[in-house]
């Protein structure tokens, strides 16, 4: 019997939702990092602690939210998560003090993970079926990159539109006022996407029943923990996610080391997002035609090459071309790994019925960089100002890239 997959618009809505939900807590600070530090009166370490608070809440949310995704339809959980996250954006636009900002990040840790993360991953696996797992996750991550790039470009346009005069001469109040429009527009879009998901991202009744458990129990968790692939994926995703977290500082690198102004520095972060859809779609198609686990290993090798270049100290403001080449190499490796690490779940013999539970358990370890990478980046960047701090960051990243490559190579040999 021919396998019935959800329609294309199901994946399109999932892509929109998958990036929109993280835009407020993460993408804005990635693209506008120098601006965020100025208008919220933060240093890198303080912003890092905001991410840590998010990560601590997310840690509990992964483990409890995973089984929830195996019981309830992805559509309902994803839609509610988007609307609640968007509402948080109105608080963000008021530029709360440091303590309130940490509380807001705790709130986002709940809305974006407990209600959203495992349902998104499970929905992609459902769409991919038995033969298109590479495409499902490649298109998901690549599409999320395109959405992020478009929203970032729109944000940059809005930001520059409301800046009075030259950015170099703008006061903090002027920059804050312009950035408020960016936040409010983003919040409205996140809520709108949530409404669209609720009404249109539907599965048939029989299909919902086939991928849902009747009740949540400890037996699900015990069954998942017995799978060796789950433990390998914990290490692989941990190392890959450290790499991804470091992309948060590309715009800051452009400002600190390459001497770009705020708009040009934000442009670097936005430009990279346009590479993500190309990499995600390409690696997804390639992985389905070759071996997904082998492609995952190669992505770590490419990441290691890029990190070693950026850690070497040979990149200065006098060689901007080498800076862009190094960043592009690193981006290829990082985005390829992101597109593939959940796509190998089928290879790892993880039952689709327990996908949510498996994602929760894997993420409990795999995404701990949400807790420690923010403060760690802040410690390096504030403790060693300028190029030296960035070199230390990328040197650390090279260690994680090597470990991730080793774990993915063992996974490939065990699950070819």
Distance between the termini: 27 Å
The outline comes out as: globular
For this structure, what is the CATH homologous superfamily?
Answer: MFS general substrate transporter like domains
What's the CATH first level? Mainly Alpha
Number of helix segments?
18
The domain tally reads 1
User: What proportion strand?
Assistant: under 5%
Tell me how many strands there are. Answer: 0
How confident overall, as mean pLDDT?
Answer: 85
The helix/strand order is HHHHHHHHHHHHHHHHHH
Structural class: mainly alpha
CATH topology: Growth Hormone, Chain: A
**Gyration radius, to the nearest Å?**
20 Å
**Low-confidence parts:** none
Biggest sheet descriptor: none
CATH architecture: Up-down Bundle
- Assembly state of the chains shown: single chain
Fraction of residues in H or I helices: over 70%
Structural overview:
The chain is mainly alpha-helical and 416 residues long. It has a single domain, classed as MFS general substrate transporter like domains (Growth Hormone, Chain: A). The chain has 18 helices and no strands. The longest helix is centred in the middle third of the chain and has 30 residues, at 133-162. The chain is globular. The chain starts with 7 loop residues before the first helix and ends with a helix.
Q: Which features does this protein show?
A:
single chain; 416 residues; mainly alpha; Growth Hormone, Chain: A; 0% strand; globular
Helix and strand arrangement:
Elements: H1 8-31, H2 33-39, H3 44-71, H4 74-92, H5 98-114, H6 117-128, H7 133-162, H8 172-200, H9 205-210, H10 218-225, H11 228-246, H12 250-256, H13 262-289, H14 292-311, H15 320-340, H16 355-366, H17 369-383, H18 387-414
Helix pairs in contact: 1-2, 1-4, 1-6, 1-7, 1-8, 3-5, 3-6, 3-16, 3-17, 4-5, 4-6, 4-8, 6-7, 6-16, 7-8, 7-13, 7-15, 11-15, 11-16, 11-17, 11-18, 12-13, 13-14, 13-15, 14-15, 14-18, 17-18
């Amino acid at each position: 019997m021919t396998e019935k997959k959800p329609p294309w618009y199901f994946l399109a809505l999932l892509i929109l939702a998958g990036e929109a939900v993280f835009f407020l807590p993460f993408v804005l600070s990635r693209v506008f990092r120098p601006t965020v530090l100025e208008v919220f009166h933060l240093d890198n370490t303080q912003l890092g602690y905001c991410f840590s608070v998010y990560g601590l809440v997310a840690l509990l949310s992964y483990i409890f939210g995973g089984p929830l995704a195996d019981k309830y339809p992805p559509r309902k959980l994803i839609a509610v998560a988007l609307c609640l996250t968007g509402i948080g954006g109105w608080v963000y636009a008021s530029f709360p003090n440091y303590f309130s900002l940490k509380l807001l990040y705790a709130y986002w840790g709940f809305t974006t993970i407990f209600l959203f993360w495992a349902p998104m991953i499970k929905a992609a696996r459902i769409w991919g079926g038995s033969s298109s797992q590479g495409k499902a996750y490649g298109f998901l991550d690549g599409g999320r990159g395109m959405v992020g790039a478009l929203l970032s470009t729109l944000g940059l346009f809005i930001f520059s539109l409301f800046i009075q005069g030259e950015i170099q001469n703008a006061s903090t109040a002027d920059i804050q006022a312009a950035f408020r429009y960016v936040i409010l527009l983003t919040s409205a879009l996140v809520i709108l996407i949530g409404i669209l998901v609720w009404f249109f991202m539907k599965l048939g009744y029989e299909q919902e029943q086939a991928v849902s458990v009747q009740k949540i129990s400890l037996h699900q968790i015990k069954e998942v923990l017995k799978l060796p692939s789950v433990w390998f994926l914990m290490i692989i995703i941990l190392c890959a996610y450290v790499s991804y977290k470091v992309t948060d500082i590309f715009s800051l690198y452009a400002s600190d080391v390459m001497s770009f102004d705020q708009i040009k520095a934000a442009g670097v972060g936005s430009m990279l997002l346009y590479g993500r859809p190309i990499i995600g779609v390409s690696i997804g198609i390639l992985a389905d035609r070759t071996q997904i686990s082998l492609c995952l290993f190669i992505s770590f090798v490419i990441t290691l090459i890029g990190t070693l270049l950026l850690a070497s100290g040979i990149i200065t403001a006098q060689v901007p071309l080498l800076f862009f080449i190094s960043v592009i190499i690193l981006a290829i490796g990082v985005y390829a790994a992101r597109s593939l690490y959940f796509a190998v779940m089928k290879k790892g013999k993880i039952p689709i019925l327990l996908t949510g539970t498996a994602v929760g358990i894997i993420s409990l370890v795999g995404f701990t960089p949400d807790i420690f990478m923010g403060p760690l980046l802040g410690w390096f960047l504030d403790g060693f100002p300028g190029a030296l701090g960035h070199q230390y960051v990328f040197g650390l990243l090279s260690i994680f890239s090597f470990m991730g490559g080793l774990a993915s190579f063992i996974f490939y040999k065990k699950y070819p």
